[in-house]
Amino acid sequence: MADESEGTPTPDPTEYPGNEATVETLQAENERIRAALKAANKEAADRRKRLDALEAEEQARRTAEMTEQQKLQARAEAAEQALATAQARADETLIRAAYVAEAAKAGATHPEDVYLLASREGVMLSDDGIRVLGVAESVQALLDEGRIPLAGRTPAPKMDGGAGGGGRAKPIKLDENEMRAARAAGMTPEEYAALRDATTQDD
Known about the structure:
The chain has about 200 residues and is an all-alpha fold. It has helices at about 15-105, 110-115, 135-145, 175-185, 190-200; strands at about 125, 130-135. Helices cover about 65% and strands about 0% of the residues.
């Protein structure tokens, strides 16, 4: 039996140049696509770098603004703290002066020590911040407990007098500077004079 393939000729690739052109075209297209992808990737990378730089600049700007706000806030808090500290010291000075004056009026040997001995329970400033309330009661409690050494003299007489007052009280004499100091300390002229006299005797 004759081979049927003998009747079918084998195709020669060289007889179909169109096939070679197709392969070359595909290769060229692949090269073009690879080049385009490479360029696109490079452009995307460049854009990402620019975006990262812009984001970094924006973050730096926001950080700088936040830092400035924090500085302003810190300054405001420092000013408030300084004001509160100054007010507390002024209040403390006022209370101390009231204790010293009341202790001097009671005849304490060292009126300035009474402020340290007192518990200060119930002692407070008036609503207007000028007068000290509760000091007389606080000093009297120390007197009742015998915790205040007395100078061996009777307490300074009150200006309003009273039964058993022991006679007429001496007039209070304060110069202009002393009157100013008494007002600044929230003390009556009598209290300031008692404090002055006690201080002079101690010296």
